[in-house]
Fold this sequence. Notes:
Layout: E1 2-3, E2 9-13, E3 18-23, E4 31-37, E5 43-46, E6 52-56, E7 60-65, E8 73-79, E9 85-90, E10 96-101, E11 105-110, E12 118-124, E13 132-135, E14 141-145, E15 157-163, E16 171-178, E17 183-186, E18 192-196, E19 202-208, E20 212-215, E21 234-236, E22 242-247, E23 251-256, E24 271-274, E25 279-284, E26 290-295, E27 300-304, E28 311-313, E29 332-338, E30 344-350, E31 358-363, E32 367-372, E33 379-386, E34 392-400, E35 408-409, E36 413-416, E37 420-424, E38 430-435, E39 441-445, E40 453-458, E41 469-471, E42 476-481, E43 484-489, E44 497-502, E45 511-514, E46 519-524, E47 528-533, E48 541-547, E49 553-555, E50 560-564, E51 569-574, E52 582-588, E53 595-598, E54 604-608, E55 611-615, E56 628-630, E57 633-638, E58 645-650, E59 660-665, H1 668-678, H2 685-691
Antiparallel strand pairs: 1-2, 2-3, 3-4, 5-6, 6-7, 7-8, 9-10, 10-11, 11-12, 13-14, 14-15, 15-16, 17-18, 18-19, 19-20, 21-22, 22-23, 23-24, 25-26, 26-27, 28-59, 29-30, 30-31, 32-33, 33-34, 34-35, 34-36, 37-38, 38-39, 39-40, 41-42, 42-43, 43-44, 45-46, 46-47, 47-48, 49-50, 50-51, 51-52, 53-54, ...
Amino acid sequence: MGFSADSEVLGTSHRGGRVQLWDITRPTMPRRAGALDLDKSAVIAFHPRSRLLAVQTNRRLTVWEIADARKPKWLAERRTPEEVAYTLAFSPDGRTLASGTGKGQLRLWDLTEPARPGLRAERTVSQVELISLSFSPDGRRLVTGNGQGGPRGERAAQVKLWDVTDPGRPVALSTGTAESVMAVAFHPRRPFVASAGGNGKLTWWVVDRGQRLRKVDHDTFENGWGIGERMPSLSFHPDGTTLAGADSAGYLLLRRVGTAESSLYEGSGENRRAAAEPVQAVAYSPDGTMVASGDVRGEVRLWPDRVPAPSVDGTPAHADPGTSVISRDGRFLATSIFDEEYRSTSNVWDVSKASAPRRVLTLPPPWQSGYFLPDRRPAVMVAHKYVAKTKDHVFRLWEFDGSGGSPSGGKDIHFTAGDVVTGVSRDGRLLAIGEQNGRRIELWDVSDVRVPVRRAVIDTPVAPSPGAVWFVGKGALATVDGLDLRFWDVSDPAHPRRAGRVKDGAAIQASAYLHGARLLVTDEIGQEVSLWDLADLDRPRKLSGLPGAPGLYFPVGDGTLMTVLGDGTAQFWDLANARRPERIRTLRFDRPIESVVMSPDGGRAVTGEPYRIWAVRPDRRWQTPSLATLTSAEQVELFPDDRSLMAVVQRDPVLGAGEQTYLLDLDTDRVYEELCRTHPFSVDKAQWESLFPHIEWRSSCG
Length: 702
């Protein structure tokens, strides 16, 4: 199987001797073109610079012109000794054609004149089948693979490096051994070779100075990639960033290729695409826009080299309480992507046009994007830098004016501590930075992004937990002091005042604050939560108790609280009269809800896990059934309600490459329209159900 040089023709070779050509100028509607009916099965190779096709059967080599794929034109034929042909490949300049046979024969043909192919060299290079070969990017080297060594496979398989600068006199330079070799592939841009074989094993080789193959070491089991017993084909993306493999378990396998030798076995971005039968062959198109897989039943699948929905690189971080990785206006999204050494590169994306997200800011390691400040227009993001093995922390605020220009960064905020925790006021004007396991909280006025001002330092214990410092209403700060919740009056940030406390308020698990009702919620012993009135910060008053499991209570709108029992029952409470809360609704779930996140405008809710999307009516009632259940989602973030959009990270991605966040529309008609534009091959049913379980599957493009 292979593509023509212009990526407009796909050729497939089938049992019985048929070579089928496909017109794929419109990849959404491949059309049968011409066909070659030969006496035996064949291997094929397309010329890398012109519309020529070479075909090798067990008896003859033929060359065809396919300027018109509907009418292949015979150019030449050369008879060869009768033996099974396993592999065929052109050199990058198209002048040399290499073939491998069942008797271990390597043949090099001169195709400078395609109508007069001439045999330049023929030699036995293996005692068993020469099953795969691949040219280096400059065409001066050739790598061959020959299954398992010896007549009964009693010796290790071999990967050999050849100098073919003079194709008439190939010179063996180096030989490496592996457990099994069924496919080899030269990296298109770097001195690497990949080989694969039995039991799904992948082996990497470095071509040292063009002279010697050196196997890249790996730990036990680290070189496992395939799922089935065989991996008979490999193909690199033309830019070398991705390696595709054929798997006999019925998958097209894809994996990112790391930049460092040490990362080659790490399998960054591994994913797979399902086929109905064992996959025999894979091939990337020369323009890199498609990858094809062919299975043992003769079925061929074309896949676009992109995910089937708009996406951005990386995944959203988990923001502090009251903040979000999505700006309040829904225009910007912050993500991070980690390299093999777990260093993060953070990006901010302009997703105002979700079908074409645009990167507007990149923060290299050790910077990390944090979250967007609430209620700030223009959008303001907090970034954090920490230098490993030091106590140096730096915070910087970035303002995004939405005009399309570059964001502007403010003056750095320096903080010395082992670990830090932050909290943000609801209006996004006051930032609290605390030293975990220490006794210091700094209050910073960030009203002016360019010049943040430290207003005060509070001497108080700071617990070693993410929610140890948080704001509870206008001008009030809460901290965890041992088992107690301590409150601070920060209505004048320059003069914070120690206020009251809730004894044992942090003894069980968690707490929450309902800004609209000015109520604090804390855990109690025995499946109960307590409501506290914080109108007088010096004297918190307990008002009532509600049934609820520890930590399983969630503000779901101003004045409404959801509590969850151990059996999965969720109860909704109207807290207009907090002394006598009124239960307004009960929903029963198949398992206890672990999290509830409300959209910034309160019109939607996300519960997990599994993640479900709910519409919330103006009267605060959740509409049933849910809008969607995202069974394979690992993370879901909702955009403000004037945007029917959500950011989704899949748990075990099979559609994309690497860490991706998908931007998915809840409007069904727009889903079909956008998929047809961005993914014109149509999404198959299994993939559709993974991404859009709430929408009936249909072909997105006719």
